From TrEMBL:
PANTHER family: SPHINGOSINE KINASE, SPHINGOSINE KINASE RELATED PROTEIN. Residues 6-136 form the DAGKc domain. The keyword DNA damage does not apply. The lineage of its organism: Bacteria, Bacillati, Actinomycetota, Actinomycetes, Micrococcales. GO terms for molecular function: ATP binding; kinase activity. The keyword Lipid metabolism applies. Belongs to the diacylglycerol/lipid kinase family. One of its GO terms (biological process) is phospholipid biosynthetic process. Its cofactor is Mg(2+). This is Diacylglycerol kinase family enzyme. Keywords: ATP-binding, Kinase, Lipid biosynthesis, Lipid metabolism, Nucleotide-binding, Phospholipid biosynthesis, Phospholipid metabolism, Transferase.
Length: 342
């Protein structure tokens, strides 16, 4: 090994071999690294046992200067968990069916070469990462990260009831089938919840959803105001009391948030409308949710079993993401504004 190769920067690629064309992606990463004068990249495959967090830590321990991740939302979540607070930039190469973080950052979804090149020639922006500490019914406690959203209740049950085979065939649309299965058995459950700095609430809810960013596929805006870089989490408490309540939930997400809010006239209509309590919104640096019985939990679209207590916190600006030079998006607008102010 020459002195130049020992001192050159090095990137690592973490990829799910089921989700990507491994040969093409490795070749693209190697080519761009060589063009930038970096050393030959390191390559790590995820497995059923290791979704990407362990190999990402291996890459960090090896002293890499950048990490690329290619896989589904679960792979991105796991690698982000390992890299939060490391100061090493992460490049998201969209793969799989969801790509929810990439969608919220408005990254190119069908141009992996552009994202690979951004590792070596692009810019970096800090984004927030959420961490959820879960306490099981037997008292066991675990903590995991999420970069898009986590939840307790019906949203997690919907994911648990979604057919894995159907998801592989039709992507995120498969969740419609899971939702239909879950709604039949959906029952509200009592919780106590508290956002730091606010009083404690008791409510019968269908779901508590905690969002780091709020856009879903098909142009749906679950939480339009959610920002991935404001140091806060946006929280939606779903508490419809009857079928009409569910219609109001759907109207809020599919029409009010996703259509009307885009136009000034629509926003004026919303300002005049009587508010309903089918969805209650709040925000803060975290939330504690305690349920009387174990409830299903999901993080970034993956099920994480059941828990009686979920304590969520935000790690503000703890993850550096690489984006193409000059790239911008509403999700990153707060970051750019803050940097410009400084």
């Amino acid at each position: 090994m020459t002195e130049a190769s020992r001192t050159a920067k090095r990137a690592a690629l973490v990829y799910n071999p089921i989700k990507v064309d491994a040969d093409a992606l490795r070749a693209s990463t190697t080519r761009h690294a060589q063009d930038a004068g970096w050393a030959e990249p390191l390559f790590f495959e995820t497995t059923v046992e290791d979704l990407g967090d362990e190999v990402a830590r291996e890459a960090l321990d090896a002293g890499v200067d950048a990490v690329l991740v290619a896989g589904g939302d679960g792979t991105v979540r796991a690698v982000s968990e390992a890299m939060s607070g490391s100061g090493v930039p992460l490049t998201i190469v969209p793969s799989g069916t969801g790509n929810l973080l990439a969608r919220n950052l408005r990254l190119p979804l069908d141009d992996s070469d552009t994202m690979v090149r951004a590792t070596f020639e692009g810019e970096t922006q800090p984004i927030d990462v959420g961490f959820a500490r879960l306490r099981r019914g037997d008292g066991e406690t675990v903590e995991h990260a999420f970069v898009v959203m986590g939840g307790m209740g019906l949203d997690a049950a919907m994911i648990a009831n979604t057919s894995g085979d159907l998801k592989k065939k039709v992507g995120w649309v498969a969740y419609v089938d899971g939702a239909a299965r879950s709604l039949v058995k959906a029952r509200p459950f009592p919780v106590m919840y508290q956002v730091p700095g606010h009083r404690m609430h008791r409510a019968n809810v269908q779901s508590v959803l905690i969002a780091n960013c709020g856009s879903l596929p098909a142009g749906l805006e679950l939480i339009p105001e959610a920002s991935i870089a404001d140091g806060e989490l946006d929280i939606a408490i779903f508490q419809p009391k009857n079928p009409l309540g569910w219609l109001l939930v759907w109207r809020r997400v599919a029409w009010d948030n996703s259509v009307l809010r885009r136009f000034r006239a629509g926003r004026e209509i919303l300002a005049l409308r009587t508010r309903d309590n089918s969805i209650r919104y709040t925000k803060g640096t975290g939330i504690d949710v305690a349920a009387s019985a174990p409830q299903p939990v999901q993080l970034d679209g993956d099920e994480f079993g059941e828990a009686t207590h979920m304590a969520v916190r935000i790690a503000a600006g703890s993850l550096l993401v690489a984006v193409p030079e000059g790239h911008t998006s509403p999700a990153l607008a707060a970051v750019r504004a803050a940097l410009a102010a400084d």
